[in-house]
TrEMBL record:
It comes from Plasmodium vivax (strain Salvador I). CDD domains: KH-I_Rrp40. This is Exosomal 3'-5' exoribonuclease complex subunit, putative. One of its GO terms (cellular component) is cytoplasmic exosome (RNase complex). It holds the Pfam family RRP40_S1. GO terms for biological process: CUT catabolic process; exonucleolytic trimming to generate mature 3'-end of 5.8S rRNA from tricistronic rRNA transcript (SSU-rRNA, 5.8S rRNA, LSU-rRNA); nuclear polyadenylation-dependent rRNA catabolic process; poly(A)-dependent snoRNA 3'-end processing; TRAMP-dependent tRNA surveillance pathway; U4 snRNA 3'-end processing. Residues 161-208 form the K Homology domain. It is found in: Nucleus. Keywords: Exosome, RNA-binding. The keyword Nucleotidyltransferase does not apply. The keyword Cell membrane does not apply. One of its GO terms (molecular function) is RNA binding.
């Protein structure tokens, strides 16, 4: 099952112990009298186990269009301001909103984020409404104890920095529990990073040249081995430091 090439429309016989560990958004069950565990794929790619909790099996490909899933971390862009919520762009074919008060830690009617169009938010997909094809996101994380106004919570506004797109599969590998490339860069450069399942990466450093170095490394490291990443990053880092 794992590491196999999947074509959209392929029929796959799932083992019983793996049925609960597949991304149901990319598979649909086929009701067959001879088998209870027959599924059909909705897209093409390579079937792999995701490197982050809950480690489900998913189809990895080079698509840049995001399919929302509850619990995903996403980077959204404020599109417009409404009375009680903001409309967000999360790189998908559906509407996304985030409530001004309910979706921010300790926000009240008198104290809530006043966000301008173009503001970046690091959010979590909280609810998907199939009836009207919309997504509700939130900036509240269960481990956060401080108010949204401190800019110290895990989720919330991404201030300054630089955002760029990557493929959905690449984003999933970067957001894994242990990302070799991000650790490699962190050994030489101090930086902040936020990666969204929706194919967006945000990077912030104290030096714009270091931001450009990280962007270049991430841009050209997709599909590389660890040894190739080592050579690529050291070349970029040494060249960047030589120009300072």
């Amino acid at each position: 099952m794992e590491d196999g090439v999947i074509i959209s429309g392929d029929y796959i016989q799932m083992e019983k112990d793996k049925v609960k560990r597949i991304n149901e958004h990319n598979f649909e069950q086929v009701h067959d009298v001879e088998s209870d565990n027959l599924y059909r794929s909705k897209c093409s790619g390579i079937l792999l186990k995701t490197p982050y909790y809950p480690y489900k099996y998913d189809i990895m490909n080079t698509s840049y269009k995001y399919m929302p899933k509850v619990g995903d971390l996403v980077i959204g862009i404020v599109k417009s301001k409404k009375l009680d919520y903001y409309q967000m762009d999360i790189n998908c074919n559906c509407e996304c909103i985030i409530h001004k008060i309910e979706s921010f830690k300790y926000a009240t009617k008198n104290s809530f984020p006043n966000l301008a169009n173009g503001t970046l938010l690091y959010m979590i997909v909280e609810k998907i409404n199939l009836d009207n094809n919309s997504v509700v996101a939130s900036c509240i994380n269960s481990s956060d104890v401080k108010s949204w106004i401190n800019y110290e919570n895990y989720l919330g506004e991404l201030v300054d920095g630089y955002m760029f797109p990557v493929s959905i599969s690449y984003a999933k590998s970067l957001i894994g529990d242990k990302c070799y490339l991000l650790d490699l860069i962190g050994a030489d450069v101090s930086y902040e990073v936020a990666v969204g399942h929706n194919g967006r990466v945000w990077v912030k450093t104290d030096d714009p040249r270091e931001t450009n170095m990280i962007h270049t490394a991430l841009k050209y490291s997709f599909g590389k081995t660890k040894a190739q990443m080592d050579v690529l990053w050291k070349s970029i880092y040494n060249l960047g430091k030589r120009d300072t």
